[in-house]
Amino acid sequence: MGDIxxxxxxxxxxxxVRSKPDGTLDQDAIPLKLSDIDRNAVEEAAKLKQRLGGKVxxxxxLTVGPVAKREKDLKMAVQEALAKGxxxxxxxxxxxxxxxxxxxxxxxxxxxxxxxxxxxxxILASEATIDETTGQIPGRVAAKLGLPYISFVxxxxxxxxKVIAERDLEEELxxxxxxxxxxxxxxxxxxxxxxPTLIQIRRAARKPQKRLGVDNVKHVIGTKRVIxxxxxxSINRKQQIIExxxxxxIADKLIDVLEKEGVIKL
Amino acid sequence: MRTLIxxxxxxxxxxxxxxxxxxxxxxxLLLAFGPTALEAENLSGLVDKVYALSxxxxxxxxxxxxSIYEEEEPGLIIGxxxxxxxxxxxxLAGAYDLPxxxxxxxxxxxxxxxxxxxxxxxxxxYSVEKVPMPAIILLNPRVFExxxxxxxxxxVKLEEGNTRVKSIGISxxxxxxxKLEEAEIVVGVGRGFKKKEDLKLxxxxxxxxxxxxxxxxxxxxxxKWLPEDAWIGISGKRISPKLYMAIGISGAPQHMSAVMGxxxxxxxxxxxxxxxxxxxxxxxxxxxxxxxxxxxxKIRERKG
Lengths: 266, 304
Ligand SMILES: Cc1cc2nc3c(=O)[nH]c(=O)nc-3n(C[C@H](O)[C@H](O)[C@H](O)COP(=O)(O)OP(=O)(O)OC[C@H]3O[C@@H](n4cnc5c(N)ncnc54)[C@H](O)[C@@H]3O)c2cc1C
Ligand SMILES: Nc1ncnc2c1ncn2[C@@H]1O[C@H](COP(=O)(O)O)[C@@H](O)[C@H]1O
Description:
The structure holds 2 protein chains of 2 kinds.
Chain A: E1 3-8, E2 10-12, E3 32-34, H1 36-52, E4 56-61, H2 67-83, E5 88-92, H3 102-115, E6 120-126, H4 137-145, E7 149-159, E8 162-168, E9 172-179, E10 182-186, H5 198-204, E11 209-212, E12 226-232, E13 240-241, H6 247-261
Parallel strand pairs in A: 1-4, 1-6, 4-5, 5-11, 6-10, 7-10
Antiparallel strand pairs in A: 2-3, 7-8, 8-9
Helix pairs in contact in A: 2-5, 3-4
Chain B: E1 2-7, H1 10-22, E2 27-33, H2 40-43, E3 49-53, H3 58-72, E4 76-80, H4 83-96, E5 100-110, E6 113-120, E7 125-132, E8 135-139, E9 155-158, E10 166-172, E11 185-189, H5 200-209, E12 212-215, H6 217-222, E13 243-247, H7 253-256, E14 264-269, E15 282-285, H8 288-303
Parallel strand pairs in B: 1-2, 1-4, 2-3, 3-9, 4-8, 5-8, 11-12, 11-13, 13-14, 14-15
Antiparallel strand pairs in B: 5-6, 6-7
Helix pairs in contact in B: 3-4, 5-8
Adenosine monophosphate (AMP) is lined by residues 7-9, 35, 37-38, 41, 59-61, 63, 105, 109, 125-126, 128-129, 132-138 of chain A.
């Protein structure tokens, strides 16, 4: 077994959206966290390693700068991945990276995989991030590296040199097979990520981390995308908690209010 | 401007044709694959040329796309989001370093650029962006009205060719056929329910109110306590009923963004700090196992 690579994104946390008084998004005030489904990718990498051996290498490109402001979030995201099963992390962070540009991100990831001493058997990513939710980075990386790609995977097995995976489509489950090396994007249903043990958390701090800037990576071009406007979607709900001395009273009040709103007819 | 449409489903092809025409394309090509390839003749009158690929394998879609892209040099490559389409186009994007945007809800062409709007941060915010062509734009369903199919044009059949990923079996998911997007009342169930049998409480409530039952992603996709067409959220169904009652659901952005079109949202959750209470009109802080039987009893009484 060669290396198991996991692509990890420190993503803007949608549970903590912040806006300026005029409703435009205050991106600098939104913290980053390891993107949700990337945790499933790490868990799957750890499980594959347990069965097959190999080393788990995490690659993270910081796409929300400036770097100095994001050091703390970045460190937490990397630590989390290391505690949950990544053996070694490669982080690319540089203020010259254009925020959120997938053309550039994929180029950097492909270049890191090509130019370091990584010998991937499987490259795992998630089906979609919590901030951009485009699901395009793994496909881009596969095309750049000329590797087969299996998307939206709900289960993986490895038999000899082959990967057998179940793809989750709109109305079907499709079983496919391919020879390694292969790029795989996983869905949230592939596993239940386990919380790391105390020992794993302690060990994480001692695991190797490599930091790169864009000078270490060839062919990185500027962005083509111009962001014109980013605004928060305002939520205007009544937020009224129905109180009462017991549940019977609360139920009565709820029925009354829903009848008054005209949304139920009894 | 030349536009290349990629479609796996017929309705998506018809919506994309409308989009291509609205955006002012002077030549429209359609790569129809999988089920849409069977309808290639029927669609051919709408566009300048249809390429029909019977395979659904995204790798062979990608290989076909590459040769059409090289030959026709389209400025715009569009489609409606679906998994195989996303897969194939993300590879094309990678191969030619094209900008690609998905889940787009508004699009226009300005000179040599495309301007569009899409949800970001799990749809808690939106972004208006502009990219130079050539570019890939994947639209959300129903952004454009579908065209009527029209036969009588040119169809070129494509060969599947060799692929490195091979399909070795397909099984259909168990779907119920419920149309949550058309329901007036939806009862949503989340991980606050401890076992599948307990969902009976939600089904009883929905039946009394004349509504349907849907659920959060873990309930439908992971535990499989509901069929997957009852999965509500940005990766499932988007609903806009008169009343949405979320029971034992925490209020994650990926769930809530898809129910914001509801007229009234009620949340029942035992944790008074659950984020859902900030996104609901009426909240009940209670254990669903205690509250629902009482609510059901009261509604029965009032119905007489
Ligand atoms: C890219 C992406 C896409 C996603 N797409 C979707 C999607 O389309 N739809 C979706 O739903 N999710 C989606 N998710 C998952 C989402 O982030 C949440 O994990 C999920 O919505 C949580 O489901 P839940 O609210 O049922 O469970 P939980 O978050 O576990 O919440 C359960 C709630 O029940 C309450 N509770 C527990 N016991 C009781 C009781 N006895 N009585 C009352 N209340 C109780 C708890 O207080 C808690 O608030 C997506 C995630 C990602 C990253
Ligand atoms: N900046 C990044 N660095 C490393 N991996 C990434 C990055 N962006 C995206 N990925 C990977 O690609 C997946 C899908 O991302 P996206 O295309 O942005 O939805 C993520 O879950 C990661 O596995």
